[in-house]
Design brief:
The structure is a single chain. The protein is α+β, with helices and mostly antiparallel strands and 149 residues long. The chain has a two-stranded antiparallel sheet with strand order 1-2. Helix 2 runs antiparallel to helix 3 and helix 2 runs parallel beside helix 4. The longest helix is centred in the first third of the chain and has 44 residues. The protein starts with a helix and ends with a helix.
């Protein structure tokens, strides 16, 4: 039984030695947790700006790239409804090829992404409109891929 008492005494002495360090560590961790909580609160308040900035930058970069690599007249394929056409699919769907200018092909997807981001700013729940704006970044890529010659 004597060895248990000596073990308890040694343990208590060890705890007294490390108590100031543990208290300082606890104070630092509490302060860090408080600061991270404040930072997290601001990130939550400004989440729409934080989410929109990379999407807006990517849209601008894709617009600049498409302005330099698309031809003067960009070919697009539209789906229209014409029941009298000989090449109608499923009763009335017809694929029609049309040409638009480079400016429309560059600024159109940029405007779609900007509209999606504006809807995200107006929305109470920002994640769903943000995902839609991310998917709208596929429009300039699709225009470029379909017009590679």
């Amino acid at each position: 039984m004597n060895w248990i008492n000596s073990l308890i005494i040694k343990w208590n002495d060890f705890c007294e030695k490390i108590r100031p360090g543990v208290q300082k560590t606890g104070t630092v961790c509490r302060r860090l947790g408080s600061d991270l909580s404040v930072i997290g609160g601001y990130m939550y308040k400004f989440r729409s700006i934080i989410l929109a900035a990379p999407v807006a930058a990517a849209a601008a970069i894709l617009a600049v790239l498409n302005a330099s690599r698309l031809p003067e007249a960009v070919q697009i394929t539209k789906v229209t409804f014409d029941t009298m056409s000989d090449s109608a699919l499923f009763g009335g769907l017809v694929f029609v090829t049309d040409h638009v200018s480079r400016a429309v092909a560059v600024y159109g997807p940029l405007a779609v992404t900007a509209a999606c981001l504006m809807l995200m700013f107006c929305s109470k729940r920002t994640l769903y409109p943000w995902v839609i704006s991310v998917f709208s970044l596929a429009l300039p890529l699709l225009l470029w891929i379909t017009n590679i010659s």
